[in-house]
Specification:
With 360 residues, the protein is of the alpha/beta class. It folds into two domains: 172 residues, Rossmann fold (3-Layer(aba) Sandwich); 173 residues, NAD(P)-binding Rossmann-like Domain (Rossmann fold, 3-Layer(aba) Sandwich), CATH 3.40.50.720. The chain is 34% helix and 17% strand. It has 13 helices and 15 strands.
């Protein structure tokens, strides 16, 4: 199969979908890989390394899209890429359709095959979302701590405090991969952490594995409202696979929080779990509503592309290889986990969560 790796052009997106090591694996399995020039540069991989692994370097994204049967990306196509996509071409990337109707309709119009990393599922886990969720969860605390600093507009509080001064209070909404990593990071910095989830069995598990400075809480509107006046940093880590995230904190509830508190919405790719959330970029990551800072960067792992690219390729490569070896139709027939990744096929929405979001 002819595999194409275009350069990511979304704002401040520095990751690349395939490392030179991944290219080498594809070549050894009899496939041809075309990489757009400088595609891996921001992740620390030069064109020479790709050539050394067996890739062919092309000068433009159009050349890559024109020749490739499967396009591997990190983020969803943006508007200038829509017309490059061909009917029946396989796109293997993060799409997050439920948060973007314009993208959804554009991909329907292309008649391409859209297989989304974020809905590939095995044993009730999302193996291609996990590595980036781990990065985003850890970084959410790192970024939250930064924006709590007074020069950044925050209330001027140190997460871990110091002897004689209490640590910050951190509320993590969602006990999945993102929430677990965020809670561990915040706890490691010395903050007092509360992690909330709707699953009692998950809360039992978290109470067993978390450090002593982490409490668990059943996630209800009442409990969240009671916590908001006390917390300095809230991490939104809610995920309903393929569907739009619910709003757990409304605009009205912001009045309960202290000015200079920080909200980090890791669920922004799926529409955000705060009513006042809107996507931001690494160039302009925050804005303020009613005195509360909002950090809503839609590609948080893009800030650490070397780590993120390696982690992502570790997860995606076995699936990409199966798609290349068998073709998408046979691979999805044989693999239920890959089949669940199919979102749009030749103009038809085949993911129920996406269809329900837009009443298709």
């Amino acid at each position: 199969m002819k595999i194409g790796v275009p350069k990511e052009i979304k704002n401040n997106e520095s990751r690349v979908s395939l490392t030179p090591a991944g290219v080498k694996t594809m070549i050894l399995n009899g496939h041809t890989v075309f990489v757009e020039t400088h595609a891996g540069e921001n992740s620390g991989f030069s064109d020479d390394e790709y050539v050394g692994a067996g890739a062919q370097i092309l000068q433009t994204a159009k050349e890559v899209f024109d020749i490739a049967e499967m396009i591997m990306k990190v983020k969803e196509p943006i508007e200038v890429e829509y017309d490059l996509i061909r009917p029946n071409q396989l796109l293997f990337t993060y799409f997050h359709f439920a948060s973007n109707e314009v993208l959804t309709r554009a991909m329907i119009k292309t008649n391409a095959v859209c297989l989304a990393y974020e809905t590939v599922e095995i044993n009730n886990t999302l193996p291609l979302l996990i590595p980036m969720s781990e990065v985003a969860g850890r970084m959410s605390v790192q970024e939250g701590a930064k924006y709590l600093e007074k020069p950044k507009g925050g209330k001027g509080i140190l997460l871990g405090g110091v002897p004689g001064v209490k640590p910050a209070n951190v509320l993590v909404l969602g006990g999945g991969v993102v929430g677990t990593q965020a809670a561990l990071m915040a706890a490691g910095l010395g903050a007092h952490v509360t992690i909330a989830d709707i699953s009692l069995s998950r809360l039992r598990y978290l109470s067993e594995i978390m450090p002593a400075n982490v409490d668990t809480l059943m996630s209800t509107a009442y409990n969240i409202e009671k916590m908001l006046p006390l917390v300095d940093l809230v991490i939104g880590a809610v995920l309903i696979p393929g569907a739009k995230a619910p709003h757990l904190i409304t605009k009205e509830m912001l009045k309960l929080m202290q000015p200079g508190s920080v909200l980090v919405d890791v669920a922004i790719d799926q529409g955000g779990c705060f009513e006042t959330s809107k996507p931001t970029t690494h160039a302009q990551p925050v804005y303020t509503v009613d005195g509360i800072l909002h950090y809503c960067v839609a590609n948080i792992p893009g800030a650490v592309p070397f780590t993120s690219t390696l982690a992502l390729t570790n997860a995606t490569l076995p699936y990409a290889l199966k798609l290349a070896n068998l073709g998408w139709e046979k691979a999805c027939e044989e693999s239920e986990d890959l089949r669940k990744g199919l979102n749009i096929v030749n103009g038809k929405v085949v993911c129920k969560a996406v269809a329900d979001t837009f009443d298709f």
